[in-house]
Amino acid sequence: MFKRFWLWLGGALGKLLLLILAVxxxxxxxxxxxxxxxxxGPVATEEEIPAxxxxxxxxxxxxxxxxxxxxxxxxxxxxxAHAKAHGCVKAxxxxxxxxxxxxxxxxxxxxxxTWQAWMRLSNGNAYPQFDRVRDARGMAVxxxxxxxxxxxxxxxxxGEQDFVMFNHPVFFVRDVAEYRQNFAAQxxxxxxxxxxxxxxxxxxxxxxxxxxxxTLAPAPDSPVNTTYSSISPYKLGEANIKYRVIPDPxxxxxxxxxxxxxxxxxxxxxxxYQQLSLDRVPACFALQVQKQNPxxxxxxxxxxxxxxxxxxxxxxxxxxxxxxxxFDSREQNLFCDNLSFNPWHGxxxxxxxxxxxxxxxxxxxxxxxxxxxxxxxxxxxxxSPSP
Length: 387
Ligand code: HEM
Prior knowledge:
EC 1.11.1.6; Catalase_core; Catalase; alpha+beta; binds protoporphyrin IX containing FE; catalase
């Protein structure tokens, strides 16, 4: 009697599993077909600014400042995102001697030119949590002594060209309206509401939920051993591009990275310290750009869509070398905390474009000004250790 019951139950569960698998596969292939149809070209080559964007931007700034205060915990006021640094290191960015003619613009105009720079490596979270927690990892690079009129007139950033990236190729929202909805829900601790704002399935952002889950990835073995993407688009002279920084170990002396104890809270800083300060081995990267091909689906106003590399491959424009150095001092860590990176610190030839970048212009400036004022920090670069 019992045997028959168990056999029946086993069979029923097997069929249920098969049914779930079939429904899952059907859903997945329908999704693929839908996005294949929806994400097909051509696309605009100019920005398209929705009417409500300014209103949403203001609301986002208010939520961002609220988050900064929520995470303070009796510490200094930290960044609203990428609060924890693994270190700020000196770097040299050298334009390729044989850079393609059509990519020579802005800081890449002069083949062979070397720029001195600061590089800040970070975790993405607003709270400085243990490195082993799944997270995005950030890289921000600031070229110094860059001549020419800049997009933002702030005297503190007049000589700077910033590149701000994290290590995933796409963002978990498409535009400012969606960011407003998602961020407001998250600021109120409503993680489900961030991607499922109502019972109406047309408002569900399942694809973006998957992007968010993939973005929160396990840590690399070192902050210099992962690829960082701009995600959002920029001008490069007349062209529309995205950029990224990829590790280029072949351009540096061979180095076998010793395994770190990932149970330690700051093992990414330790890995950096081990390579640059103890083993005295530099780290090398390539800075690459990808041009928009508007005949294909490479939109300017949707940061959740990756531009297809088969259609438009990334091309190297500069090399980045992080020399062996001592970076982990009290003075330099404080200086690092007081730096402000912003994709809008830079030349008009590198102007950020698209909704998420327009939003970042207002938010980064507001949050940076707020934390500097609360920490009573002076102008960051005026008290810098020399690069
Ligand atoms: C393309 C997508 C984005 C990328 C690649 C990105 C990357 C980064 C990185 C790497 C940092 C740390 C910079 C540093 O080391 O100081 C940062 C900081 C920050 N991000 Fe983003 N971010 C993106 C989108 C956004 C958006 C949409 C917002 C909000 C509107 C935002 C708000 C901030 C804020 C407030 C800071 C701290 C600014 C400061 O206090 O100096 N980010 N971001």
